Structures are given as C-alpha cells and as structure tokens.
Amino acid sequence: MRTSRIAILIAVGAISLPLLASPASAIGAKSRTTVPIGKQLAELKGSDTVAADGFGVSVAISGTTVMVGAPGYGKSAGRAYLFARSGAIWNQTVELKGSDTVAGDYFGYSVVVSGTTAVVGSPGYAKDAGRAYVFTNTAGGWKQVAELKGSDTVAGDYFGYSVVVSGTTAVVGSPGYAKTAGRAYVFTDTTSGWKQTGVLKGSDTGANEGFGYSLAISGATALVGAPVYTKNAGRAYVFTDTASGWKQAAELKGSDTVASDGFGISVAISGTTALVGADGHAKQSGRAYVFTNTASGWKQAAELKGSDTVAADGFGISVVISGATAIAGAPDHAKQSGRAYVFTNTASGWKQAAELKGSDTVAEDGFGVSVVISGTTVVVGAPDRAKDAGQAYLFKA
Fold this sequence. Notes:
By secondary structure, the chain is mainly beta. The chain has helices spanning 73-76, 125-128, 177-180, 229-232, 281-284, 333-336, 385-388, and strands spanning 9-12, 15-18, 26-28, 40-44, 58-62, 65-70, 79-86, 89-96, 110-114, 117-122, 131-138, 141-148, 162-166, 169-174, 183-190, 193-200, 214-218, 221-226, 235-242, 245-252, 263-270, 273-278, 287-294, 297-304, 318-322, 325-330, 339-346, 349-356, 370-374, 377-382, 391-396. The strands form eight sheets. A five-stranded antiparallel β-sheet has the order 3-4-31-30-29, with no helix packed on it. β23 (287-294) and β24 (297-304) form a beta hairpin.
C-alpha cells in the first residue's frame, strides 16, 4: 500500500492512513469556444498556506464552488479553503476552521461540498476520536451549524477520516472503530438540526479491516470501502436507504484482487455505477474496477488501468465517477510527480480519454492524491508540492 510523503501518518491495522482560504489565489484560463478534455483551467493554492500544510490532501466541488483541505496547517490544526468561479477565474472566498479545533486535529483531512452545505472531517480531534463540522452558506457567508460525532466513538476511532453528503444526508467514516473494524455513521439534517440516524458496518467485517476508510453516496445508495479486509485484499459494501433504515445490499470485490491489493482504498458512485480503487494491485501499479447495478445485482463491468502506469504508481488511490466519466489518480507515477487518468464509457466500453498532469508539477508533488468532478470540471490535488505546501489543479473533462 502507498505511504504518503506527508509527514504525519495515522496507523490503522496493517495499513498506513496518510495525514499529514481573502485575496484570489488562482491562475485562471480564458474561456474558449471548445475546450479539449484534459485542458488545465486553473491552479489553486491557499492564501496563507506554507510548507507542510498539505493543501490538496482532500478536494471537493459542487457547481462553481471548489473546496480544498489543508490538514497540516498550523501544527496540524488544519484548514479548509473555498473557491468560487467568476467568469474564467477562480477566487478564494473563505477559509474555514472548526470552532474548537486545535493543533493535531487535522481539520480538512476530508472535505465535501454540496450546494450550500459543506462538511469537513477532523479525525485527529480529542486523541483521534475525531469530529466532523457542518457549514452552511448563508447571506452572511459560510457559518458552522453543527459539530458531529458518532454516538459511540472513542479515542483512536478517527471519526471524520472520510465524509460525504447528499441532500440532507451526511455519512462520516470512522475506520479506527473497534480495533479498526470500522464504522460509518449516517446523519440527517432535521428541523431541529443534524441528528445521527444510522450506523453502517459490513456484514462480515472484523478487527483490522478499516471499514469506513473511504465513502461515496448517490441518492439513497452509499458505498463504503474496507481496504484492509483479509490481508489487505479489501472489500467495498453497498448500502441502500430503505423504509426501515439503511441496509447492506451488496459486497463488492475485484475479479482478480488478492492480498495487499487494497481494494476499497477509494470508492465513488454515480447512479447505478460504482468505481472502486485498488492501488496495491500488480506490485502497486494499481487498478480501478467499475460495477453496474443490474436486474440481478451489482456486477463488475470493467477493470481500468492507466495507459502508461507501471509498478509502484499507485493508480486508484483516488477515484471519482460522474455519468459516463471516470477518473483515477496515480500520485506515484514518474518519481511521484503523479498523474490522473480520465476514462469515458463508450459504445465499446470504458476507454481512456486523457492523462492529466499539472502544468508545473515535478517529482514528489503527489499529483493525483485526490480527485473530484462536477459537470465538466475536474479538480486534482497535489498536496506534496513545494515542500508539502500543496496545490490543486482544475481541468476540463
């Protein structure tokens, strides 16, 4: 499994879990009538980020709003930066922090934004018990409206290691729970505030499996990764929100995954299509697996790899899918300068459409640690750039 070059690590079972925004801080590109797939549109950095901040460990996007986490900021107290697009230029609009976060909390290790709601994970909070913070974009700007914790989480659970949101539902991963068996907690935005409404666990997960390391949600379907399952072979679990609560609907594994593949290190879902990364496959060259929900259940439909990936590239450490577009990051490609690969679902199956790299990325920048997409805009994090200060890059998909 890949070990991050960011200085701080959270150890969960047999796997290392890597841990380690005011004026405009974007370089914009002029709009064009036709922008080709893979064209870099902008380069983002936090207005006050410095070496070791890890800006780009996490990225999120919703429409014309981009969010980037920097969990190493301020002795790892952490920050999250929001950017908004004005024409072709992306400007930083706000810098978020938790109301009670302190050094070592890693606020910003996970981020998600959907419309006017943002959720930021802080897995180092209170001796690694963890927290997640909910913010709402109001007439007076972004305001913290809730601080989430699991009903039974304790020190070492890393609640907030992963976060997702869809509408009024948020899910927060806690992969350290119960000797790293892991859990995921469901919260609902009610008339009286955000309330915990469910707890997810895999039907066969036990100690040292890291359930909740990665999360994805699409409507009433959630996908949870457990990359440490069975000697790091890994699994991903599908849950559906039913009239009687969230129920496990399927357990996924790659058709050729074996021990140390880390299947479930990253997960993504869009409608009836899921994408699961396995960055350890084939001597860590990595793979990403596409699954489709058919009349007879979830079935593997494709296995993706980069056109030029080799051993130790870590393809699949990050994945995202939206409609007919899938993207996988390979942050260790080319002496860890990193790449991200765009695939399109065509009439003849999934085909690579582009290979992304930052216009100024160099060895050890870790481009591809994180990836997200909204519409035709892709955001890729490079948190190791410039002595781990980090940057994020926007592309046309």
